Sequence to fold (467 residues):
Amino acid sequence: MTDEKARIGLVGLAVMGANLALNIAEKGFGIAVYNRTTARVDEFVSDAGPLAGAITPCTSPEDLVAAIQPPRAIILMVKAGAPVDATIEALLPHLSPGDMLIDAGNADFNDTRRREAALREKGLAYVGMGVSGGEEGARHGPSIMVGGPAGNYEAIRDVIEAIAARYRGEPCAAHLGPDGAGHFVKTVHNGIEYADMQLIAEVFGLLRGNQTAVRLSEVFANWNGGPLNSYLIEITAKVLSAIDPRTGQPMMDVIVDAAGQKGTGRWTVIEALKLGQSPSTIEAAVAARSWSAMRETRETGQDLFGAPVPGAGPLEADLESALLAARIIAYGQGFALLSAASEEFDWSLDLARVAEIWRAGCIIRSGLLNDIASALRGTAPHGQLAFAPAFAEWLNQTVPALRRVVAHAVQEGQPVPAMSAALAWFDTMRQARGTANLIQAQRDFFGAHGFARLDVEGDAYHGDWPA
Ligand code: NBP
Fold:
């Protein structure tokens, strides 16, 4: 413990907050910490070992504020939603104009915009800061996506860049835009994470057939050495090789097949729909998690209709290419959503910079992100990553495999919602004349909604429909 005032404060010593606080202390910044359940504060300091010297334990919001150098910067790392508002309320009476609160949890960016505006009126700054990398990232270097007033970021930039992950020496942290921009980018990051995890799970479903989890682990480990190289493929290989100490069975065989979700995937889809976007792979991934939770319904369905019988499965090389194609499309849909939000909220997001700070520390870090950053700095017609020359070439090479894999799965009755959604997006986007002319005709028939014609200007024509 130190007698000097701390450089920064932190509230919320659960998994993420505790690890982030240790990371900050390790980088040489004095940090004052507080947790609602104060027993956790003592526990944290006694577990901090040699880093305890840089930590000031506080037992009330008032103590915390008093322990930090003004103008104060305080990181909030509590559960999203009402706990963030409760923490702000508890700190408010003790703060002075010029102080800054930094919400480092996963927040709905609408809440961040509201909180930023409310605190600005009181002369306080509010920074919404997305942090990705889980427990390990928080402790040793996460990817950090910052939103809020640019000047406030400058005041904490040295701390943030010191604790962030590094890609070839460059910190994976950036100020991306005002108010909710950082939390929006983090939300979409998680949306892409949902899609990528679902795509990997679908491939696992097609591969597992009669193969052991250990053999599957080798397949993913091999792929991690190629164009699919990424943290999620790497950990997939690791979890597939794990053995349950209780039963001696592969861990995969004892885990219930119902996925949890805390809300960021759902937020991505809700905000996308509000912006007139449809990131089909993310939508499919959110739906698949909801379906996974319907275990009893699925059991009844299996009794009624019979489960698909796994056959030989597609070729491993096809699965690798299919996963790459679908992953490119998922990232592209995420970036298109970021672009739409940037326009709507006037954020001027630097999309290439977003790709750059995702290259290390975060859950969706992958070899692809370097190429994505280059493509987004170059030409991507209509803002579509898939249309950038390098990615168009990759898709030309890999989509035939995606098509074969989806066709195989459909034929066998194996669900592949995210891969199908990626393929449907691709097939729609390569068709200049689609089928919505029929929808327009139907809408005009029953609701006189009008339509545009190919041969004449204007959009309010009506058909001469049979009665
Ligand atoms: P949790 O999301 O589980 O939150 C636990 C913390 O919130 C504890 O410190 C708890 O205090 C505090 N808290 C609660 Br719950 N209600 C409170 C209230 N009304 N007032 C004050 N404090 C309250 O912790 P986490 O998993 O470390 O995540 C923290 C944030 O980081 C979340 O927004 C999460 O979505 C985000 N995040 C998590 C991960 C991850 O891998 N876990 C990754 C990236 C981002 P208590 O001890 O008194 O109950």
